[in-house]
Amino acid sequence: MEKTYTIVLRPEPEGGFTVRVPALPEIVSYGEDEKEALAMAKDAIELCLIHRKELGEDIPDSDGILVHSVSVSIAA
């Protein structure tokens, strides 16, 4: 069974990215660059789902969250 989850990569001031998974709030990970952050997210999600299954907890469906960027102008 394959599931798809939305992840959020937040750039950190010192470099790298913090990874969050809205559907799995217990996940917080980090990667030195975007590629590593994505790999860490995948590993964290897989481990989280295995752990939830072992505990008999629910495995959430793919979250279906839509993420968009909106640009705004701010008057000086």
**Element pattern in H and E:** EEEH
Report strand %: 15-25%
- Characterize the overall form: globular
What ranges have pLDDT less than 50 throughout 5 or more consecutive residues?
A: none
**Helix percentage:** 25-40%
What's the gyration radius in Å? 15 Å
User: So how many helices?
Assistant: 1
What profile does the largest beta sheet have?
3 strands, antiparallel
The CATH topology:
Double Stranded RNA Binding Domain
Quaternary state of the chains: single chain
Terminal-residue CA separation: 52 Å
SS-based structural class? alpha+beta
CATH class, named Alpha Beta
Give the strand order, joined by hyphens, for the main sheet.
Answer: 1-2-3
Q: In total, how many domains does the architecture comprise? A: 1
Any idea what the CATH architecture is? 2-Layer Sandwich
Number of strands: 3
Q: Any key phrases for this structure?
A:
single chain, 76 residues, alpha+beta, 29% helix, globular
Helix/strand layout:
Elements (H helix, E strand, L loop, with lengths): L7 E4 L5 E4 L7 E4 L2 H22 L21
Antiparallel strand pairs: 1-2, 2-3
